[in-house]
Amino acid sequence: MADTDGSSLPRILGVGVVPCEGLHKGLVVNFNEAKRSIRESVRKAEETAGYRLESAYVGVAGAHISSANNRGVIAITRNDRKVNSKDLRRVLDVARSIKISDDRKLLHVIPRTYIVDGEVGVKNPVGMHGSRVDIEAHIISAAVTAVQNLTKCIRGVGVEIDDLVAESLASAEAVLTEEERQNGIVLADIGGGTTDIAVFKDNSIYHTSVLPVGGQLISRDISVGLNIPFDLAEGLKMRYGNAIPIHDMGETDRTISEDGHTISYSTFCEIIRIRVEELLRLILMELPRSEGTKFTPAGVVLTGGTANLPGVVELGSEVTRLPVRIGTPIKLPGVADIFSDPAYATGVGLLLWKAKNKDTQGWEVEGGVRRFVSKLFRVFR
Question: pLDDT per residue over 25-41, tens digit each?
């Protein structure tokens, strides 16, 4: 939960973090369990903040999310040929008229760039003179049923929805710099069940996608490869995991003993390395191609809980041959120390998204937009 303190940054008043139950890879798979998780997180946040949570910005993830860039064009027929804000809304409506199937709904329509009478690279054409305005917009859609199930869970605990935001866009708000967005950057938010990808170029969103794999895949391979329970594999990964196995003889002979299981440290780390390398290559395969030329970013930013894995930066640089860094959310005022962890990039980003997009609404929420009193972090995936 958050409020504003007069500055451009929201101030965190309360936090509610609970284990994920009832969701898998961003999708609701058990309605009652998911609702219980949401209710508990809301309760904890309300107790900390001393306020009631009335409405929320909600992060959406899952492989059902897809994106495309689409163009629109309008003519300026007025005598003065001066572009105004109504013209921008009109050309954006043309761009959003992309055909999508009945089982999908537009989540975001984001202007990327404008062209005024052949002049490219225009960021804001209001006030310019011209007879034709073109727009290129980034359009993100989601499966209607997936979003309906999620919104039903949230509304089921008495919380209304102000907006639904693709988690990759939210995470980008929390961890990317303006310079990175301008030069070209790949953001990969590696969570438990999904990896949310956003590619920026020329200070605008260029491509978004979601991979249906994340940190849980690493834990599952550890469990199978070493014949140990999944929960133990997850715990060992978090405590001892390293994506770059140490080749010093003293370390390769090391063993880990826990809960009656003894495993080889080098084998344990090698499993992690193989899976992380595979995930990094899948991320690279998601990079867009334009006119047959591979998009070349200036670097990669890894965030999400799996980004905490030691060695992931070194392995990332080796696999991608690009600069790699860990994306840590910017510090917000209030009770925010916990959110310096990459695992909370989406949560922090949702608050920043709300502050940045005060007057816009991406998802048409039934019943309209509620008064902003407090906001709900994405606390599970």
Answer: 889 999 999 999 999 99
